[in-house]
Each structure stands twice: as structure tokens, then as C-alpha cells.
Design goal:
10 strands, 44% helix
């Protein structure tokens, strides 16, 4: 189904358009009411296939999709829409059942997630507008970075484990020339303040690395950050999704799969 919510008597349209995808009628009704009441134009779809018929590049400011849908999954929807509209802001509705499920959500390229069950639908509108602003700033900074020659693209590896850090740095060096290692948050801050970087790779041995990510993002708001580790639990990965981490690599460091994933991530960020 597809529907557009009319303005209420006390709200005017704010010019923002939402595409909401969920197979639960109660979710569609609740979200459509909340966003419509805040002045959004809302279109709804009960499946990914139906959503793709409604979707076109530039048609929507925000897409909210459930992760588990009949037919096309939420992750598949995100990938297809990202290919058509790389600037699109996407939030995912999900009830994380496992660490691998949370990693899939993070790596799908969503800008934020909404955890089920949703307890306060009305507060989501202000959060959505905040995510939109963050995404716009990120796109502006990515546009500035795209003018930087490949040889000037810097990657910083933050890890308390020297051997692991060197292994990661070697993988990065296959793609770009400028890669450095910081053994602590203080050292990372010093390097970031002296030289603009295109990517920060944080290895899980870094002490309180989620707090480190939060601290760095406060100073360098749109710096892409990726986390590498093997022992990342569900709670940690959920926190990484909430922090807006660009990628999570859960593979043995030094393995061919990990090396390929690191190199691919650097290429993707540098050439996006």
C-alpha cells in the first residue's frame, strides 16, 4: 500500500518526505501519524518490492525500513537504494537477535537504527531530523575530501597491540601511501589535529574503544571510523551502530578475508 498523510490543522508541511517500509500495519499507522503530525509527507510500503516501485533518486529525504521483511530483506533494500541514491539518509527498524545480525545492519550502510519494540514513536521525528543534518554535513565533508589526490589520503590505525596494528597498517598500505599508527587515544588526537585523515581504523584491543570513538567524533564529527575485532559482542556492536561507525570488520586480523575487506573499505571511502 502507498499513502500520503494529510496536514493536521496545527502543523504545516516541512517539505521533508519519508518512505516507510514495514509489514506490520500497526507500525505503519503509528509512524505515519507521528511523522505526519510533525509535517512530513509519508509514503508507506509493506514490502521491499513495493517500496522499490515507489522509490526514485531524490524523491525522499529519509527511508525507514524494517530489517526482517517478507521477500526482499531490509539489508537488500538498503543496498539497492544506496546504488541508486548514494546521498539518501536511511534508518533501519530492527530487533537485534545476534551479533552477526547487528554487524549486517551496521555494514549495510544505514545512518541510524531504531530498536524494536519502539517505545516512543513521537520522539522519533526530532531524532530523524538530527540524523538528516548529520548526513548532510557528512556529504559536504566527503565532497571536500573528493578533491584530495589519492596520494594525500591519510589513514590512522589506533591500537594498543603493536603486532595487530602493524598487520592492519600493512593491509592499508596496499591501497594508499599514508598510513600511521597510534597506540593510544591521546596519540591519535595529536595525529588527527596535525593532519586531516580520510579514515580511522580502531582495533578492539584499544582501551574503552567505544568511549574513544565517541570522544573523537565530538572533535572530528564526520571522520569515517571503522572497528576491527573478533570478540565484539552484540551489546558493543549495537553501540557502534548507534555511534554511526562506518564499518565493522569481524574477521581474524592478518587473514586474507580481513586484508581484502580493509583494502576494499579504504578504496570505497577514498573514491566515493
Amino acid at each position: 500500500m502507498s499513502s500520503t498523510n494529510n496536514d493536521t490543522d496545527h502543523e504545516e508541511k516541512n517539505g521533508l518526505r519519508l518512505l516507510l517500509i514495514d509489514d506490520e500495519p500497526s507500525i505503519l499507522v503509528a509512524f505515519e501519524f507521528a511523522f505526519g503530525d510533525a509535517g512530513w509527507e509519508v509514503d508507506t510500503a509493506e514490502s521491499g518490492e513495493m517500496a522499490m516501485k515507489l522509490f526514485s533518486p531524490g524523491a525522499f529525504d529519509l527511508v525507514i525500513t524494517d530489517k526482517n521483511l517478507p521477500g526482499m530483506s531490509g539489508v537488500e533494500i538498503v543496498k539497492k537504494m544506496r546504488m541508486l541514491d548514494s546521498a539518501l539518509t536511511i534508518m533501519m527498524l530492527t530487533g537485534f537477535g545476534s551479533a552477526s545480525s547487528a554487524v549486517d545492519t551496521l555494514n549495510a550502510g544505514v545512518d541510524a537504527y531504531i530498536e524494536k519494540p519502539v517505545r516512543d514513536v513521537m520522539r522519533l521525528t526530532s531524532r530523524a531530523e538530527s540524523i538528516l543534518r548529520r548526513r548532510q554535513l557528512q556529504l559536504e565533508q566527503e565532497a571536500d575530501a573528493s578533491s584530495v589526490p589519492m596520494e594525500a589520503f591519510h589513514v590512522l590505525v589506533l591500537s594498543a597491540d603493536t603486532a595487530q596494528a602493524e598487520s592492519i597498517a600493512n593491509d592499508v598500505a596496499k591501497v594508499v601511501e599514508h598510513v600511521s599508527i597510534a597506540p593510544s587515544l591521546e596519540a591519535a588526537r595529536e595525529r588527527l589535529s596535525n593532519t586531516p585523515h580520510g579514515l580511522l581504523l580502531i582495533e578492539e584491543s584499544t582501551v574503552q574503544f567505544t568511549d574513544a570513538i565517541d570522544a573523537i567524533q565530538r572533535e572530528y564529527e564526520c571522520l569515517p571510523i571503522a572497528v576491527i575485532g573478533q570478540e565484539l559482542g552484540l551489546e558493543v556492536i549495537m553501540r557502534l551502530v548507534d555511534l554511526g561507525v562506518s564499518a565493522c570488520i569481524v574477521l581474524p586480523i592478518g587473514s586474507t578475508a580481513c586484508s581484502d575487506r580493509i583494502a576494499g573499505l579504504v578504496r570505497e571511502l577514498r573514491l566515493s
